[in-house]
Structures are given as C-alpha cells and as structure tokens.
C-alpha cells in the first residue's frame, strides 16, 4: 500500500481500484431504501451502480433510510464519506475491490419519521426498497397473517402521521401522494421471505386499513409489491474488514466484504417504472416463487443446520462448521434426504446441483460469516426457513429425522451454554422466553415443541415429536458429535436414534 485515501467524492480519482466513472453530482434520486446494511450495499446498491457505470439509471439513485435509533451510527459513517462504500470480493482464488456510488444521501433518523415520509411522498421516488430482516414484517408466527396487536402497529394506527415503523411511514407517504393526486410507488422487499412482496402488501395494506380503509383500498388497487429473491453472503463488518479496505489504500469506516456470487430474481410488476437491472445480471421472472423456494430452503434453512450446532460446539464461522466432519456430513444428509425433496428445479439448475454450489459457498474460508450472526433470531428463521420444509415432508409421508435433529440443536443452543461450559449470550428477540423452555426441555423434550410460537400443531405430529425428543435426549446425554454421528452412520438408514441409545419413552416424546 503506497498511500491511504480517505474515501469521499473528492478523493475518488486518487484510488487505484475500480470506482464510479459517472458524475455523482448529476445523479438524482428515484429509490428510497430502508435498511442500509451490508447486504443492501453489496447487492441492490451494487446492481444499480453497475447500471450507472454503463451510462444508465442516473435518475434512480438511492436515498438511504432507517427507522431505529441504531441506524443513526451507520448514517453518520456513510455521510462522512459521501455515502460511498468499498465492496471487497473474497473469492477463494483472489481478492478484489471496487467503490460503489449509487447511494447519494442518507435521510435523518428521527421520531415520527418525518424526513422519511416527506422523501417517499416526493413523486420522484418511484421505488421504496426494504431490507428490515425476516422478523420485521409484523407477521403472526402461527397464522402467518398480519399481527395487528403488536405495540408498534397499535401506535402507528393511532398516530398515522407520526409512525414508529417503516410500514407506518410508507402508509403516511402514500396518503400524502394520494392527497396530492399523485400515483403510488412500488414497494420492493429484499428480505429472505418466501412471497416477500405479498407479505409487504399484507403489512402495508392491513396497517392502512386500521386507520383509513379507503386509503387501504387505494394502495391495494394501485401500488405494486413485486416478489423477489435475493442472494449474496455479506458478513458483518469489524476491524478485520476495515483493515482489508486499507490494504487496498482506502480508509473506509463501513466497507463490506462479500462472496463472489450474487443473484436477484424479481417479478416484473412496477407501477412507476424501474431500472433495467436485467442488463447487469438480475433476472425478471413470472415464477420467482420457484427460485426463492430453492434458495430459502437450501441456503437459508441450510444456514440454520450449521449455525445452531456450531454455537453449541463453539465453532465461530460458517466455513469452520463446514470443515467439521460430523457437521458437514449431517448438513449434506439433511439436505439430500429431506430438504431437496421439497424443491423443484428452476431453469438451468437442479436442486442437488444447487446444493453442491451452496456447499462450495459455505466452505469459502475467506468469508468470515459468524455462526452467531447466522443463528440470530432463530425464532423467526426456523419458523420461516425450516418448519415449512418439515411440514411438507410430513404431508408427503417422508422422513423428518434430520429436520428433527436440526430443531433439537436449536433447542440445545437456546439453553444458553456451549458444551465447553461457556455462555451463549442472548441472540434472539425473545431469548428470555426461549431459554427457560430450553432448560425445561433438557428433562422433558416435549416442552420445547409445546411453544405455539413457532411450532403450532407440530407437537402432535408423532414422527416429528418422537424423533425430536430422541435427538435432544441424546444430545444432552452424549453430546452433539455423538448425535450427528448416529444420524449419519452407514447402518442408520432411517436416520433415527438407535435402540441402544439413551432415549425417552414414547409417552414423553409426544407429551401425552
């Protein structure tokens, strides 16, 4: 490194890496994006940046936004460097970097979200994107409908002009647009939810209906909420990632590392126009569901297979989990025997071929994706990624032994200690509710499945509840590795705990 350059518009010409070739001062906003984390900046912002690099979409620049107080720290970092981000691609064979400039401002974080509402009410804004995590859409975990009882939602319905939530701000902005005789914008969810556009529509329209039914009807009839599937592993940023940017000569307070893979499949339903993202690698499809089902089930559910047992064994990264022989063997068997059975091919990709790709991606040691990050919010991620697969397997009369083992490892992790005795610090929005149940399940496994959130009626599914109880008892009695080896052993064709293993009676299994 010959020199270290403080990242800003003024210093772009001093950088020795790929950087914007377009005039950022001439960009005008067309998108507000709520939730400007690493994934957004490595994914959606990058696709738009690539379009801008070929002379297009200069009227589609991004205004970053957030609705929580903790978003203010990221806003301060990004504004100090003119909203530029260094993306560092960590291919196993090489490392490269480029600066992305498609975001031009970051709106103030304030009570009542006035600045955000005013920005979205501007007719120049034609798309509002969101990456607010899977658990951020106010979905009832059992019914999958809108959770109108949540305190944030109750507040926004009673105070529609000064909302707390992103969705309340969207409703308020759409109200202003309707009042001014303007059309709506497109709401574009980029979160890992199957049918994410449908879920976003449900949340926005349902919230609007609580305070203004006619507005809700107008939104439902005129706004667009396309479904999309997004994919790119972008780990959290810490001192090591900042140091990597410095190795490229860039002093960036918020760089993003990412793998050498991206995918974005989008339903082409935009009520106010869109950038031509397909010119830089995105796919517009009428069957987003098939793509997202493959990705969410094999990749996102696959993450949960690894992260929970990784936490129990004190393995810090996803790639580290993939180098552990017992974990990798369990991962492959659960995927091949159960998860891929519920996934249909998509153009150019069979489920088992996609599994091979995921195994390669998860094994990349240069992507320092922590088990803690991946295990975060298991109450939402198991409900959204793992349990739908389990239900499909049960409905088809196929094995759920591996998925029951995955759930047993989640229950074991939520007890809050690793096998070496160290503490697993709280890692779920409802951790305080999960931990005592996990402790109770140590001696009575059925206690875990009796949680209505997220299991619903699954405690009554004998094949699942029996296997779950067997596995959790074995994990506590003999350890995680013994349970995984039992599951993957060559003579264990049905994937069940063997009769000579310590296990609980069938009456305890089913809670009867």
Automatic annotation (TrEMBL):
Residues 30-279 form the Mannitol dehydrogenase N-terminal domain. InterPro entries: 6-PGluconate_DH-like_C_sf, 6PGD_dom2, Mannitol_DH, Mannitol_DH/Oxidoreductase, Mannitol_DH_C, Mannitol_DH_N, NAD(P)-bd_dom_sf. Residues 287-470 form the Mannitol dehydrogenase C-terminal domain. Residues 493-503 have a biased composition (Basic and acidic residues). Residues 490-512 are annotated as: Disordered. The keyword Metal-binding does not apply. The keyword Oxidoreductase applies. Keywords: Oxidoreductase. This is Mannitol 2-dehydrogenase. It comes from marine sediment metagenome.
């Amino acid at each position: 490194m010959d020199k270290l350059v403080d990242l800003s518009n003024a210093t772009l010409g001093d950088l020795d890496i790929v950087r914007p070739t377009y005039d950022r001062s001439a960009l005008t906003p067309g998108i507000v994006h709520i939730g400007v984390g690493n994934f957004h900046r490595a994914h959606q912002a990058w696709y738009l940046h690539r379009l801008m690099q070929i002379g297009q979409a200069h009227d589609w620049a991004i205004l970053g936004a957030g609705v929580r107080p903790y978003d203010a720290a990221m806003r301060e970092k990004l504004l100090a460097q003119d909203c530029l981000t260094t993306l560092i691609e960590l291919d196993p064979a090489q490392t490269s970097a480029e600066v992305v400039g498609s975001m031009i401002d970051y709106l103030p974080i304030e009570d009542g979200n006035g600045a955000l509402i005013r920005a979205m009410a501007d007719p120049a804004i034609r798309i509002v994107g969101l990456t607010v995590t899977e658990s951020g859409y106010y979905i009832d975990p059992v019914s999958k409908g809108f959770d109108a009882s949540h305190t944030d939602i109750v507040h926004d319905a009673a105070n529609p002009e000064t909302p707390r939530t992103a969705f309340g701000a969207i409703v308020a902005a759409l109200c202003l647009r309707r009042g001014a005789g303007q059309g709506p914008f497109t709401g574009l969810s980029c979160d890992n939810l199957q049918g994410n556009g449908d879920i976003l529509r449900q949340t926005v329209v349902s919230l609007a209906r609580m305070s203004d039914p006619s507005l809700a009807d107008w939104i439902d009839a005129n706004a667009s909420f396309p479904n999309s599937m997004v994919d790119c592993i972008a780990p959290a940023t810490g001192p090591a990632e900042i140091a990597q940017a410095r190795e490229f000569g860039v002093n960036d307070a918020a760089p993003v590392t990412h793998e050498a893979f991206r995918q974005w499949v989008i339903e082409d339903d935009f009520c106010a126009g869109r950038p031509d993202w397909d010119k830089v690698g995105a796919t517009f499809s009428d069957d987003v569901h098939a793509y997202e089902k493959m990705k969410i089930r094999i990749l996102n559910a696959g993450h949960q297979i690894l992260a929970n047992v990784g936490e129990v064994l004190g393995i810090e990264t996803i790639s580290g989990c993939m180098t552990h022989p017992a974990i990798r063997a369990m991962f492959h068997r659960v995927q091949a025997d159960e998860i891929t059975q519920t996934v249909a091919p998509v153009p150019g990709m069979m489920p088992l071929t996609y599994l091979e790709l995921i195994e390669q991606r998860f094994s990349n040691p240069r992507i320092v994706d922590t088990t803690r990050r991946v295990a975060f919010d298991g109450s939402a991620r198991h409900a959204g990624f793992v349990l739908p697969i389990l239900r499909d397997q049960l409905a088809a009369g196929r094995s759920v032994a591996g998925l029951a083992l995955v759930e047993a490892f989640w229950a074991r992790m939520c007890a809050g200690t690793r096998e070496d005795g160290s503490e697993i610090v709280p890692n779920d929005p409802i951790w305080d509710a999960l931990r005592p149940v996990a402790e109770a399940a140590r001696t009575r496994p059925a206690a875990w499945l009796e949680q209505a959130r997220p299991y619903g009626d699954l405690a009554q599914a004998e094949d699942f509840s029996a296997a779950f109880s067997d596995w959790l008892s074995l994990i506590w009695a003999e350890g995680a590795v013994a349970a995984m080896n039992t599951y993957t052993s060559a003579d264990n064709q049905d994937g069940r705990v063997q009769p000579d293993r310590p296990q609980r009676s069938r009456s305890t299994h089913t809670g009867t």
